[in-house]
Model the fold of this input.
Amino acid sequence: MNPTSVIIKSNKYGLIVILDEKLPFEELLKDIAFKFQESAKFFQNAKMAVSFRGRVLTKPQERQVVETIVNSCGIHILCIVDEPKEHEEYYRQILSYALEEKEDQDGQFYKGTLRAGQVLETETSVVILGDVNPGANVVSKGNVIVLGSCRGNVYAGATGDKNCFIAALVMKPIQVRIADKMARSAITKRVDTGEYKIDPKIAFIKDDHINIKPITSENLNELSI
Done:
């Protein structure tokens, strides 16, 4: 193993993994596995966000890297975070809320991507560690947080709770519904393979209409997150 091909650092909310940009990808995966196996006892069952530096990864490569890390040390990766300074506080609040939800509603994390035709129904709030693809449906009696790309149909507050919300790191849904209010996208298609920049947004009811706004401290405080 090249000792400098994978460097692990920490920030306030998770891990920064610095990857060699020139090493062949398959060799890099082996070095990642070795590095995290060495630290397995330290990371076991830890819940963290992770960000990558040094190398541009395609989405399939990113998934392989995440799977390698998880399989090597048992860490729970809540989301992958880009590192613009102005987003740090927003991610912190979403991650803090996600962790609180897990403690209060054990079992309400869904790990994986929901694909076309799949339906996820929950009795309480749910945090989805993955994407909601076009044609997939999420129905929750509570809030829905997507730590990934939301491009399908999402229904929060399914029993009529207008105080519920939907949040996502990429908010490009076909349809969102909260209680008895609904909003449709005029842009997203049922077949959507595009890559989108992380742009955290939240959907909530205000003045009897669904509002979709950037995740800011002001909006989160208004919802008591």
The helical segments are 25-38, 40-43, 59-73, 88-104, 217-222. The two ends are 44 Å apart (CA to CA). Confidence is low (pLDDT under 50) at residues 103-107, 187-193.
